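Ticket reopened. Same input as before:
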Amino acid sequence: AQSVTQPDIHITVSEGASLELRCNYSYGATPYLFWYVQSPGQGLQLLLKYFSGDTLVQGIKGFEAEFKRSQSSFNLRKPSVHWSDAAEYFCAVVAIIQGAQKLVFGQGTRLTINP
Amino acid sequence: KAGVTQTPRYLIKTRGQQVTLSCSPISGHRSVSWYQQTPGQGLQFLFEYFSETQRNKGNFPGRFSGRQFSNSRSEMNVSTLELGDSALYLCASRSRAGLLENTEAFFGQGTRLTVV
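Engineering reply: fixed in the latest deploy. New output:
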């Protein structure tokens, strides 16, 4: 079954430092992958998505992600984090379940920014 | 353009009661999906409605039901509430149903349901 694993439940980085959030997926064919961000008390906002083509994907707010088929990974990166990046981040894959497409989410990674 | 609106934002109910949550999608969007978010289970898909018809369904008991009206607004109902139903319920709207890779899902802020 298609699934997503985010190995890090909580990550703390200093403001201005670089960031990498890990995401591993399990899917037989070419996956459709997403990263969402959720600020406290808010819904989910799409950061970026990968469907095909260039394996390095640029998103909003200065984020990027790299699809690596050999490692079944889709890690999210940002060269320099800002205090406003503190939030929970979710990786998701489109899964075919009972013949219908659904978004399957990872458990999320909570990002804390130290001043 | 207004975003996805969910009402109410917060709700407290007693075990055994029923509850109805509402979601108004972005104007022009005809697909509405519902998700349950809990600390233990994370984000889980409940169901998707398009043009007043349920298109997809997640693995939830029959106590969870929904419907969609002709104006695309959707309601989700949970009957005989259990403590474990306490969660953030999120809805997402898309301009159309079909392949998820073709249309972005926009999420509302959610309704936080507490069952006591």
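Chain B has a mean pLDDT of 93. The two ends of chain B are 37 Å apart (CA to CA). Please confirm and we'll close it.
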